[in-house]
Specification:
The protein has helices at residues 7-24, 40-68, 81-85, 89-107, 112-138, 142-149, 154-177; strands at 27-30, 33-38. The chain is mainly alpha-helical and 183 residues long. It comes from Clostridium luticellarii.
Length: 183
């Protein structure tokens, strides 16, 4: 894997870091769970669909780094290492990993249905990493953690993934055609 990044690539990744930070502020608290509904998942999927694995992961890694040092880019204008180490931090920590996988899925030319099914697998990975950290930080039993942190979010997250796939596929095609990005 190529670890050097051009200025253009870094700039493009930074744009998607900013998009993630902006969409993270669309946050709806739920009365029965400490995990809010946010648009971060949509931003992760969209960035990786458009940028591919390498740059998609970079955009999310930058997001975590600037949030981790205290810049208020996480949901509800929060930031700091305590957010990453807290009950909801596992979801955030999964973002660069799933962005890489999402990007790799977007880079191959398979059929749309198979790609969406594969993307659902990355959503399961996000849930797993996040819920395991939630379980360990809060000492809430795993079954209850799943009821609080996964089940209420599945329907909306499926919609986010499908919309990000469709939008990302179309946007990526337009950007490639205009030579604004390259694979």
């Amino acid at each position: 894997m190529k670890l050097k990044f051009s200025i253009r690539e870094m700039s493009t990744a930074a744009i998607f870091t900013a998009i993630t930070a902006i969409l993270a502020q669309i946050s709806v608290p739920l009365p029965f769970t400490p995990v809010p509904i946010t648009m971060q998942v949509f931003a992760v999927y969209l960035s990786a669909m458009i940028l591919g694995g390498r740059l998609g992961a970079l955009s999310q890694l930058i997001y975590l780094l600037i949030g981790g040092i205290g810049v208020p880019v996480f949901a509800n204008f929060s930031g700091g290492f305590q957010i990453l180490a807290g009950p909801n931090g596992g979801y955030l920590i999964s973002y660069p990993i799933i962005a890489y996988l999402i990007g790799k899925i977007s880079e191959k030319n398979s059929n749309h249905i198979l790609s969406i099914v594969e993307l659902m697998g990355t959503l399961i990975m996000c849930y797993a990493v996040g819920t395991i950290q939630f379980h360990f930080v809060t000492n809430i039993p795993m079954q209850k953690a799943i009821l609080l942190c996964v089940l209420p979010f599945i329907p909306l997250d499926i919609i986010k993934v499908v919309v990000a796939y469709i939008a990302g596929y179309k946007i990526k095609g337009s950007l490639l055609k205009a030579k604004l990005i390259k694979l």
